[in-house]
Amino acid sequence: MADETKTNATPEAPGGPPPPAPEQTEQAVIPGMDGGPAPSGKVIDLSDVRAEADKTGPESPAPGEAPPEQGAAGSVTEYTKQEWERPQEEPEKPRRGRPPKADRAAPEAGEKKQGRGRTPKAKADKAPGKGKRAAPGKGAPPEPAKEEAPAPPPEPAQPRDATRAVKEEVVYLNLSDLHPFKDHPFGVRDDAEMQGLVESVRSGGVNQPALMRPREGGGYEIIAGHRRQRASELAGFGNMPCIIREMTDDQAVLAMTDDNLRHREKLLPSEKAAALQQQYEAIKHQGARGDDDEAGKLSLQSVGQRNGMSVKTVQRYLWLNDLVPELKGVMDAGKLSFTPAVEISRIRPKHQKYIAVSIEGQQSSPSQGQAKRLRELDKDNKLNPDAIDAILSEEKKKEDISVIISGAELEKYFGKEATPRQMKDQIMALLDGWKEKQPPELGKGDKKVDMEK
User: Fold this and answer.
1) 14, 47 Cβ separation under 8 angstroms
2) d(CA 25, CA 37)
3) Cβ distance 51 to 57 under 8 Å?
4) Residue 226 pLDDT more than 70?
5) Pairing relationship of beta strands 239-244 and 170-174 according to DSSP bridges
6) Cα angle value 393/394/399 (rounded, 5°)
7) Which of its termini does the chain have fewer beta carbons within 10 Å around, N or C?
């Protein structure tokens, strides 16, 4: 064809300069370039023209179509036949699986590394309300925080019906028909406290009816009201108001001990120990099933809960019942403190009797340390009257008591602003309040009271 242009230009090798072109016998004519031939001996490189056409000209026609006509001025619309008939490379199909190492771009700074085979998700693709909440001033405005509705208060338990199956009425019973409870552990003493009760009954009568249960041999057994019965007798009354109730032995024991332990102002250590022992046996008998040891532990817990005491304190009161009568009298008289009495209660009875004699003879009560030594000697079968006298005759040394509390421990309760003087005053005030709530036998004397072994 006459208008076809022949060229021997070799395509530029990738990555290097083009090789030198051989001499040409014919000049390539490019329409639109002043209409004249190119200078002789020169080869026109069409790569720059193609690059410019790609930037400014129209899109290239599809293979097989006629070359486009010349368009607007300045645009390249004609190509050489060699360039036009060159087969166009098909676009590379996307590869499946992991991309080649060379194609993988390094993650930008601050971008978290994605897991293997996972495509990182752009943060902008997240819809509002999903995922993390947008920061204020970026993207969608933050949603106002929703206030959680307060939890509804727990519904109060339905009040229990206190009505008894059998209607109870207050009746007046003759004092001669009333009999004390069997094995009643609390003594009725004609002391100053009883005199005050007598005056109250004489002037206004018995305000609170006593609790009775029918007695097998006739009459009634006093469950709660022994002191009221005695006060009515001393005040000159022949009867007193009472409530009669059918009760089992265990129920009667618990009602009797609860009433006396909670309402009597003065209780001897031996009385309290005996009452707690009766409570323990009644509770254990009511719930007796399975393992005896487990039932005993549960009974100790129940006794402690009924009386506001720890399990260990309940156990120590129960041990006091193992003291011989002579030592119980010494303890009730205030000559033997609670903690040493607990230690001596673990000694064999024959040695306890001699300890009581030695205490009366020397007019000296053993300290906790001395009582512990007596117990250890008895355990090793080395305790005898001479050893007892030698230990009890020792001069007691007053031990210095020092307790160290770190500043960090005190800051948890007083803060950093409190002075040492303020902290000490507050601690002493709290200890005074604690001491007032303790049983009287735990605060007697100036000996150290240690509830722990």
Assistant:
1) no
2) 13
3) no
4) yes
5) antiparallel
6) 140
7) N
Cα(391)–Cα(359) distance, integer angstroms: 11
Which residues make Cβ contacts (< 8 Å) with residue 169, sequence separation at least 6?
243
Instruction: Output the CA torsion 183→251→269→284 (10° steps).
Output: 100
Which residue matches tokens 């007193």?
A: 240
- Tokens 């355990």 locate to 379
pTM given for the model: 0.54
Phi, psi (rounded to 5 degrees) for 31: -60, 150
Contacts 24+ apart (CB under 8 A), 273-277: 273/317, 273/318, 273/320, 273/321, 274/185, 274/321, 275/185, 275/186, 276/303, 276/307, 276/314, 276/317, 276/318, 277/317, 277/318, 277/321
| Angle in degrees, CA 224, 256, 436, rounded to 5 | 100
Q: Is the pLDDT of residue 263 over 80?
A: yes
Label residues 143-166 b or e (16+ Cβ within 10 Å = b): eeeeeeeeeeeeeeeeeeeeeeee
